[in-house]
Write a structure and sequence with these properties.
By secondary structure, the protein is α/β, with parallel strands linked by helices. It has a single domain, classed as 3-Layer(aba) Sandwich (Aminopeptidase). The chain is built from six helices and nine strands; from the N terminus they run ααααβββββαβαβββ. It has a five-stranded mixed sheet with strand order 1-2-6-3-7, sandwiched between helices. It has a two-stranded antiparallel sheet with strand order 4-5. Strands 8-9 form a two-stranded antiparallel sheet. The longest helix is centred in the N-terminal third of the chain and has 24 residues. The N and C termini lie far apart (about 85 Å).
Amino acid sequence: MRFFIRLLLLVLGGLVAVVLVNTLRLPNHQLAAVPAAPAVAIDADTALGHLAGALRLPTVSRTRYAATDTVPFDQLQAYLGRTFPLVHQRLQHQAINHYGLLYEWPGTDATLKPLLLLAHQDVVPVLPGTEAQWARPPFAGQQAGGYLYGRGALDDKLNVLGQLEAVEYLLRTGFRPRRTVLLAFGHDEETTGRRGAGALAALIRQRYPALEMVLDEGGTIKTDGVAGIRQPVALVGISEKGYLSLVLSATGCLMP
């Protein structure tokens, strides 16, 4: 009996020793403290005014591209050039198919893969005859009650202006990114995207064989439909998408 007790104690002691050794050998995965970023000195009212100015340009994309009024797109390009002078002086930039915009901000470390930020300039049309139903005119860029109203305020001029506002600020502070940063703004996302995002993607693929990350307007988890991907892909959204619960009712409807 004593033999079995001693054997049991020996086994338990061995297990304790193994656990203790493995515990001591376990590497430390504690994340290092990250210093707080310096305060951002962007005037909110000025930035809001910049966005409001862009909302007043009706950059509506049409399913039939020939029907698209391109004058507002020309006006928006000129407006962005005036509003963000440092971006247009210091970043490499070009227009693709006249209205798709690509900005390239070279990083200090050419071995790092670039970061790509996406957005689109175009908005959906206003259904003719419904203008009077809008609480605020769709292309007035009005501010009221702490809100900014207009087509594109969320989808997706907010993203275009936000990215340019951030880069303009960083250029003023003398910041230089380690990795190259790309900004790509399509002009027909609400229809086919072929002339905008499609052409931009083809050009970016020619210049950069791989990207570190792509950030777009709103997130979802795609389980299919992404070429070459066989697992769910989480699309990180940096603007537009939120959460809203609605109770809908309809009057005057004929029920079957």
